[in-house]
Specification:
heterodimer, A: Rossmann fold, Rna Polymerase Sigma Factor, Chain: A, B: 213 residues, alpha/beta, Rossmann fold, seven-stranded mixed sheet, 7 strands
Chain lengths: 388, 213
């Protein structure tokens, strides 16, 4: 099954199924690393209709392994969009009211230019010759997409995890284009612990003999084993100890006794193996390296000497930050740090910590208090925006 | 799941003691309401005085309610979160009926007059004659309309009287600009300016404070 997957084919199919824009042909995107990128492709999806005033745009930003298919059926995986619970007609981000845009991030593998793309200069996939990108680069590319679509400012930039980082970066880089920002389960900088977990994942990929220094397409291989291990390790960090205990405990998988071997005796092992093996069917290993790196490099206040409040001085954007009690990847303290900086900058900020045992992934799951808060904030901001 | 169609926020009835506080606040002021509950005061101030308001509230449910009314409110508490605000960030910092429930009322008062040009504090007066009466005659901790919980259920870990409060302000070099003595419904002019009499007759005290130069 996994042999059939080819990121280039998936990327092509995602482009065909959705929308895409070729940007930066005349004026390339200047990346943080110093390189210039252009022309490049951004694959994106839109939901709902842009109103006459152009004032109802919601930019949804996806997390590390997400993509532009925020709602509806995914054309490659056949599964529902990653925020199906939140985005759609009559949902919290009501597509009958808002014009929702979600773009695959730069460096991604669902149609947007990334390391799996063929480098026009060599006729071969970029691999590791693809420039290292940052969250700021992703956001600048999204801004170019909005320019291309003729959209000025955005009613709300919203996202969880790396999507929350993008929401913060939007407010910091384009405050005048960001009416409201909702960073969920996010942080102003990636923590040492999170960089450490990402490094484990990257090392797993690079230790796979099929990785071939990132040049696996030329060798007709793909580092599925390494990518699966990376996904398994990462997936643990998206859950919580309580959730693992509740879902699996020490229950055995399809057996009544221990095997005294290294099969997946425990349900939790079987679950993780499944997560790993299905992930390689939809994700490119080099993209995983590049996007985790972008998260590691994220430090919103780096050019302000770490003084986060200075990032937001004079900002008019309304913020709503949300964290989850059992999230140990982006703990509440990370959100509070941002809240304190926003308060110090006299910004308009709301903040709620949601009580849940579902860990970091809670932002993707059915969590009524979280959804109630989102609804409330969006309705309040929409009134201020004159969206009725 | 269809939760998007929330009704538009309507003005709500505002508690009389909150109206007394609102009367002390000037138009277009920057206000921080500490322990803002469901945001009734902030909403009232935004509507009637175009105040730029912020709130801090402990309860997740109340924060959600505030956020849904378009108010900028963060989940937190007076003991933990005031330290992070810069000095002079607000024109007014309000603490309504909460001082007696804080872990460190002294520190909270100091922070309030640091953050705000003025601080407005209201609290239940444990010197009220009914409280004294219950303690004196029954020998039991008082339960009154304004202090309804039993002693082991009460969040009020630092009860004080009006005279206690005034003494603390003196100690901290905090100037009292205005004082209002009221019953539980916010009816004023109890004891007039006589603090000893007010300490006996008023069920709550309301003070406008600022840091003395």
């Amino acid at each position: 099954m996994s042999e059939a997957f080819n990121p280039l084919v998936a990327s092509e199919r995602a482009r065909k199924a959705g929308q895409y824009a070729v940007l930066g042909a005349e004026r390339p995107l200047k990346l943080d690393c110093g390189a210039e990128l252009g022309p490049f492709t951004i694959a994106y999806q839109t939901y709902g209709r842009l109103n006459a005033a152009g004032s109802n745009v919601v930019l949804a930003c996806h997390a590390l392994t997400g993509d532009q298919y925020v709602a509806g059926t995914h054309p490659v995986t056949g599964k529902p969009g990653w925020w199906e619970l939140v985005v759609g007609p009559g949902r919290i981000i009501d597509t009958e009211r808002y014009f929702v845009i979600c773009a695959n991030v730069l460096g991604g593998c669902m149609g947007t230019t990334g390391p799996a793309e063929v480098d026009p200069a060599t006729g071969k996939p970029f691999g590791l010759s693809f420039p290292v990108i940052t969250v700021t680069d992703m956001v600048r590319a999204q801004a170019m997409l909005l320019d291309y679509l003729g959209i000025g400012d955005v009613f709300c930039v919203i996202g969880g995890s790396m999507g929350g980082m993008q929401a913060l970066q939007w407010a910091a880089t384009f405050p005048e284009r960001t009416f409201a920002a909702v960073p969920i389960a996010a942080a102003a900088r990636h923590s040492a612990q999170n960089i450490a977990f990402h490094e484990v994942g990257r090392q797993a990929i690079m230790a796979d003999r099929d990785w071939h220094g990132g040049d696996y397409f030329s060798h007709g291989t793909r580092p599925h084993k390494g990518l699966a291990v990376a996904r398994m390790a990462a997936h643990i960090t998206y859950l919580s100890e309580q959730a693992l205990r509740r879902k699996f405990g020490r229950r055995l998988q399809d057996r009544s006794n221990l095997s005294y071997g290294f099969d997946a005796d425990f349900q939790v092992e079987s679950y993780l193996r499944h997560q790993g093996s299905t992930f390689v069917d939809r994700f490119d290993a080099n993209s995983y390296l590049y996007i985790t790196r972008a998260m590691d490099y994220f430090d919103l206040a780096a050019d302000k000497g770490g003084r986060l409040a200075e990032v937001f001085t004079g900002i008019k954007t309304r913020f709503c930050l949300i964290s989850f009690t059992s999230d140990w990847l982006f703990p509440t303290a990370d959100s509070r740090e941002i809240v304190h900086a926003l308060n110090a900058a006299a910004a308009k900020v709301s903040f709620v910590e949601i009580v849940t045992d579902k860990g970091h992934d809670a932002f993707l799951l059915d969590e009524p208090e979280f959804h109630g808060t989102l609804t409330g904030f969006l309705n309040g901001a929409a009134r201020e925006r004159g969206l009725g | 799941m269809n939760v998007a169609a929330a009704p538009p926020a309507r003005p709500r009835a505002v508690r009389v003691d909150l109206l007394l506080i609102a009367d002390m606040i000037g138009a277009n002021a920057r206000v921080l309401d500490v322990g803002c509950g469901d945001g009734a005061l902030l909403e009232h101030l935004a509507r009637t005085k175009a105040v730029d308001g912020r709130g801090i509230e402990l309860s997740q449910g109340d924060v959600k309610e505030c956020v849904s009314r378009g108010l900028a409110v963060i989940q937190g508490d007076a003991d933990e979160d005031l330290a992070d605000y810069p000095s002079g960030a607000f024109d007014y910092v309000v603490l309504s009926q909460t001082l007696q429930a804080t872990r460190n009322p002294r520190r909270v008062l100091e922070e309030m007059v640091r953050i705000g040009a003025r601080a407005i504090v209201s609290f239940p007066n444990y010197g009220h004659w009914r409280v004294r009466w219950q303690l004196l005659l029954r020998g039991r901790m008082p339960e009154t309309d304004i202090l309804p919980e039993r002693w082991h259920e009460s969040p009020n870990i630092h009860p004080c009287t009006i005279r206690d409060f005034i003494a603390l302000c003196d100690e901290l070099g905090i100037a009292i600009e205005r004082q209002i003595f009221a019953d539980r419904k916010g009816r004023t002019s109890l004891g007039g300016a006589n603090r000893r009499l007010a300490n006996l007759l008023a069920e709550q005290g309301l003070f406008a404070l600022r840091r003395a130069r």
